[in-house]
Amino acid sequence: MAVIPRDQGHPYDENDPMERIMFLQHGVAEPDSFDLIDRAGIVNPILLPQADGSPQPTDRRVSLLTPDTVAALQATLTPGSAPESYTLPTPDRIATPDRSFARTNVHGLTVPVPYPTKAGALAVEVWGFVDPAGAIAPWFPGTTIRCKEGELVHSTLLPKKGSHTIHHHGIEPTPMNDGVGHATFLVAGGGYTYQWLAPDAGTYFYHCHKNTVLHFELGMYGLLISDPNVPNAPFIDGGPGAVYRGNTIRNYHKEAIWVLDDIDSRWHETVQPQHGVGAGMGGTGVGAEFTTIGQNTGIELHRFEPDFFVVSGVFADPASQPKPNLITNTLVSPVMNRGETLLIRTLNASYTVVTLKFPSQIDPEVIAMDGRTFGRAPFMSYSRPFKLSTQNRQLTFTTANRWDLLIDTSSVPSGTHFVDAEFRHWRTNDLLRTVTMQIVVNS
C-alpha cells in the first residue's frame, strides 16, 4: 500500500506565529489557485517573511504552501506567462499513482422535465462533472469515480468555467487534498490534482465545495465507490461485482444505484442566472462564508421548495403508469433472475429526509452505512449487518447519508415489486412526494 507523507499533529502552541496563522486562517477570504501564485511568475509575496523574520499577517496561503511546494512552484513557473496556465503542485506528490481520474465541470446544459417548472419551462439547467476523456458520458449525477481500497489515487480537477473544487466526501486526505474551498483554496485555470488513498470498500461521493449549498443543488456531485481489492476490481456501475459483508467477500450479480435528489427549479432559473455562481455567499471574515437568513431576500438560499424529484438522474413523473412517479429505467429499477443477488447503493443527495419502504416480499440486509461495512474488523464488536424486517422494512436517511443493501432473490416471488421513497420536508416532516422504484424478479 502506498504511503503519503503527512503531519501527525501536535498540541496547539499559541506562541508559534505559524500555528496561530493556521488556527485563524478561516477568517480570511478564499484564495484560488491563481492567488497562491504571483502574477509576475514568482511565489506570492505574502509567503515571504516580514522584516523581523516572522510570517506575514494571518492568511491561509501561508499555511497551505509548504517549502517543498514553494520550490516546486518556482521551478515550474515561467516569468511573464499567463496565470491561466499555472498548475498548482500537489504537496508530497507521488509520481506513479495506482489510479488516475480527471473531471471537468459542465455548465449551461439543460435536461427535459416531465411537467413545467416554476417559470413555466419544460427543461431545467443542471450542472455536473464529467470525464473530459469520455466521448459520451453521464454528467448528472457526475461520472462515477471508482477505485479499490488501498490504492493511491490522483483526481484532477480541470475547471471549465470559474473556480470550483472536488471534495471527496468520507475519505481522510490532507487539507490541501480535501477540496473544501472555504477551508483551503479554490481550483482555477490550469487545474489541480488531489492525491488521496482509496478508503475502506464502500459507497462515498464527491462534490464541489465552493458554494456548497448552491452547487450541490445544481448537480455538481457524483458517486465515489471504493471496491474490495479483489480480482477484476474496480467494477463497472450496475454489476456484477463483489462487496464486503462483515469480514467476508460476497459476490453480487447486479448493482442498483439509487441517488435520491430533489430540485427547486427557482434555484436553477432565478438564483443562479441572476446572481451567478457565488449566489448566497457572504463576504470575508469568520462566519461570513454564506449569506444569513434575510440578508438578501433576492437570493434566499434558506428557502428551498422542491418541485422535482429525481433518482440517479431520472425525473419522477406524476403521470407515469401504472403508478404515479414510477421509475422503470433499468439502471434504477433492475430486472433479476430468481436466485441472483442484488446490491443496492443509496445516497441521499436531496435536501429532504428520505424513507425507503420495501414490500413484505423483500427483506434486504443492510451491510454498510456511510462507506463503513458493518461487522468488519476492527469494528466488528460495535456493529453487524441486520435485516430490514427488524425495522419494519423501512430505512430513513438524511442529506449525504449512504446505505448499502444486499438482496438475495432466492426466496423472492416472481413478479414486480415496488419500493417507495418518501421525500419529507426536513423541518415540518410534511410528505412532499412518493417516488417508486421497482425490482422485477423473473422465475
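the 2nd protein, sequnce then structure:
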Amino acid sequence: MRRPSLLEDTITRRLAITVTLAAGVTLLVLQLFFTFGGQWAKPDIQETGLLGLVGTVIRMVEVAPPSDRPHLIEAANTNEVHFAWYDKDNHVSHLLETGHYREAEVGQSWHFLQPYLRHYPSKIVVFQEDNPISQESGLPYDHHRFRDAYFVGVRFGDGSWILCIALERVWGLYSVQRLSLQGLMLALWVIAVSMIASRQMSRPIEHLAKGVKQLGLQPRTTHIDEKGPREISLVAQTINGMQAQIQRFIEHRTTMLAAISHDLRTPLTRIRLRGEFIQCSQQQAALFRDVDEMQAMIDGALSFFRDDASGEESIMFDLPGLLQTIAYDYCDQGHTVEYQGPGKASYVGRLYALKRVFTNLVENAIKYATPPTIDLEIQPNGDFLVFIRDTGPGIPEDSLPRVFDPYFRLDKSRNRQTGGVGLGLTSAQTIIRSNGGDITMTNRPEGGLEVCVHLPRI
C-alpha cells in the first residue's frame, strides 16, 4: 500500500491542520486579550509593587515622631499613590473610626499587606469611591479627576491614622479571579476546538453513512460518492466494489431462476396436450388441476423474479392518493374498503411496486377475512405507517413468524380456488424493505389481523 503524500486529504492531515489553526488562534486571542482587555489584562496587584510601597510607608511613618510624619508623607507621594496622616483629634480620623466598611474587602486587603507589615494594626479600613468618606474635603486627591480611587486606612497605636490612596486601579484581577477566568476560557476554547476537530472527522463519516443508507434503499441505482479523506474514500471504494459484485450475483441468480421457470412452461403445455387423449374424465380432470397448479406456481415465481429484478426508479408521489385509489377500486367491485388518514402527503419510493404491495394486502384481507380498513399515520419524524386491519379470524400465533417465508401457506392448498402459491407476502416484504421500511403482522385483541407497513421518509 502506497504511503499518502503530505498534500493528500487524510484524517491525519485534517487533524494536524485543525490543531495548528487552534494553536494559532489561541495565540491571537491571547494577544488581543492583553491589548484590548483593559482592567482584566492588567497584572496582579502583587506584581505591581504597590503593596510593597504602601507597606514600607506605613512602617516608616509609624515609627517616626509625630512632628516628622507630615514630611515623610509628603516625600512618599507618587503619581500613582498619595498618602495622608491625621492625628487622633482630626475630623477625618473620627470619620475613619466610625465609618462603615465591607468586611470582605478589609480581610482581603490585610491578606495582601500582611507580608509587608510587622504586625496586625490596631485597626484597618478599606473603601472605594462609593463610600461617603471619599467625598470629604481635606483628602489629598481630586475626587472629580480620580473616580476609581481605592483607600486603605491604618490606625496607629497612638490613635492617629494614615490614609493610603491609590488614585487609579493599576492592577487587574486578583489571582483567584484570574485563575477562574483562565480556567473558564481554557475550558470554552478546548470545547470549541474539540467540536471543530470532531466535526472535521465526523462529517465524512456521516456522508459515508448516508450513502450506505441510500445504497440499502436503492441498491441498483445508488453509488456512494468516493469523497473525503483518503481513508473514508478507500472505504467507499470498497463498498461500491462489493455492492457491484453482489448486484451481479443477484442478477445472475435471478436470470437463471426466471429462465428455469419460463422453460417449465413448455413441458407443461405438452402435458396438457397429451392429457386431451386420456379417456377417463376423472383422471383427465385431476391431471389438468395439477397442470394448472404448476402453471400458477410458475407464474407466481416469474412475477416474484420480475419484481426482484425490477429497475423501477423511486419518484415522488401522493401516498394517500394511492391508498384512496386502491380503496375506491375495491369499492367499485362491491367490497367496502375504507380509507382513514391525511388527504395529501408526498412520499419518495417505487410507485408501481408499492401499489402491488398494498393491492395484494387488501386482496388477501378480502379473500381470507373481511374487507379491511386502510389507515395512514404520519409520525413526528416524517415516517409513514400504513395499517390494513380486518375483522376476520386472524392467524395462529405460531404461524405469524413464517407468513413471509416463500411458498408458506396456512391452508396448505395451492389451487385455483384460493389462488396464489405463497409468494405474495414474500414479494411484498422484499419491495417494502427495498424502500428502507418493513412490514409486520399481528393479531388484534378485538379480533382480526393487523398488517403494519413502515415506510421511512427518505
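DSSP finds twelve helices and eleven strands in the chain. The chain has three domains: 11-41+175-208, 45-166, 313-455.
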